Amino acid sequence: MKEFLQLLKRFATPYKRYMAGAIALNVLSAIFNIFSFTLIIPILQILFKMDTTVYEFIPWSEGINMDVIKNNLYYYVTLLIDKTGGSTTLLILGLFLGLMTALKTSCYFGSSAIMIPLRTGIVRDIRIMVYKKLMGLPLGFFSQERKGDIIARMSGDVGEIEYSITSSLDMLIKNPILIIFYFTTLIYTSWQLTLFTLLVVPVMAWGMGLVGKKLKRQSLEAQAKWSDTMSQLEETLGGLRIIKAFIAEDKMVNRFTKVSNELRNASSKVSTRQALAHPLSEFLGTIMIMIVLWFGGTLILSESAPIDAPTFIFYMVILYSVLNPLKEFAKAGYNIPKGLASMERVDKILKAENNIREIENPVELKGFNDKIEFRGVCFSYEKGKPVLKNIDLTIPKGKTVALVGQSGSGKSTLVDLIPRYHDTTSGEILLDGVSIKNFRIRDLRSLIGNVNQEAILFNDTIFNNIAFGVENATMEQVVAAAKIANAHDFIMEKEDGYNTNIGDRGGKLSGGQRQRISIARAILKNPPILILDEATSALDTESERLVQEALDRLTTSRTTIAIAHRLSTIKNADEICVLHDGEIVERGTHDQLIAIDGYYKKLNDMQTL
Length: 609
Hints:
Elements (H helix, E strand, L loop, with lengths): L1 H10 L4 H23 L1 H9 L17 H19 L1 H28 L2 H21 L2 H6 L2 H43 L1 H22 L2 H24 L1 H6 L3 H53 L7 H42 L20 E12 L2 E12 L3 E5 L6 H6 L9 E6 L2 E2 L5 H6 L1 E5 L9 H5 L8 H10 L3 H6 L17 H15 L3 E5 L7 H15 L3 E5 L11 E6 L2 E6 L1 H7 L2 H10 L1
């Protein structure tokens, strides 16, 4: 319960007014319910002519308490019987009972309806918080997490929170109020019977508690299996071409079947415990009613009975009514551990540490004027496994610096340090003589444009993909950028032109077309610093020519850091740095490096061959 209250404190605070309204309506619902049940006593007494008491009216001025209210109500009922007869009085009491029930059910509905904005609001807030957190986390977090697992936490786990916790919140507000009012009525009606009842309730609660044990742990296991299923699906959708190429459909089906069976088994354990809750509570409740019925019957049959038969029936009706809130309360007790298990998984994202931090008073970054400088930069993803070692590199404004080397030499990691996708392990990177850690991350990244090997596009129109990240871009600006990127002609061949939807990850376009859209996006942003990460390596010769022409226009008068496998694309770079095992082992122009006859010469000779 402590975890649940902490959860409410975190997420329910903005919705306090809804909770207050629900409490007020539930109180009214309980009052109307008890008053409607109170009418059972005079109805039974009239039917069976059991009450021979002559009631005298007690003036209200003498004080109002339950005895006075009860006496005067009975006085009015006897007057009504004398005036209209027993049958008409029963009809009037029945209509009054219907009115009380209508008021009760209206308040009951209102209390549930007023909780809907709270339930849906909390779930929306959690989803938005998770999404915002994901947007703020460094790229290193996503290299350690499976995309399918993240999707499962955003969908399945958040959905479980809505079902298990926020749905239980309604029960946790309503049922304690009903239980308090009902038990107060029971005590007032017969404290002897109520005392006996309270001796039986702990046994019932103990039986309920047996079911709830281990539910949170089993729910965690089930949600983990759900994540495995989502991860398997995400990998399958992303690798369909390879699966079909290697005729591995049966293998993947078997893997998915295995994961699905594990999910089924884990979910079955949780569902079995939940399914046991209602029958067990029903059985224990019936046992309690049976015991109280025996004890109450014994009291009535005794010579000095503390209550009469109609009052005892009223007592049993209230006692039976209190069972339902107790069962609902117990049901919430089963649901909450499931939701807390899901919240624990969601919190792994919400509470993930972001080691890319901004200083309290960042330096204002007005532009790029001089140079980018790496001073003794070292970096490692895992402690003791350096990826970059003592990198010293100066990139003057307006110059093109190329990075070459075998895969895994640290080229992409080096350029990822400039926009602070990762932070250096030691050493520092300076922009115009100021450490990049002293700037706002947003300001720093606004100076940098990226064109990657894989053109990352979104399931949207061509216009929106080119204008991505540029506020209020006009059609004229987008068309101008597309023309510079050699993309305008093929865009205009599309039926809807710039309003053509390009599908998931730009799947409706060829590789060269996707890359030219990506370049147009960078051109529209017009950044002073450009990072090209093997932008042409995945293209055919014709596409490469068109893309290279676009890149040549894009890099004019810009500071460019280019990662390249095809050395022909960077022959004209102002400086070429050769990386090997995380270190710069050679640097110079193309001709200088050929003359050195080292790593670069070997790479060049292999590509020439």
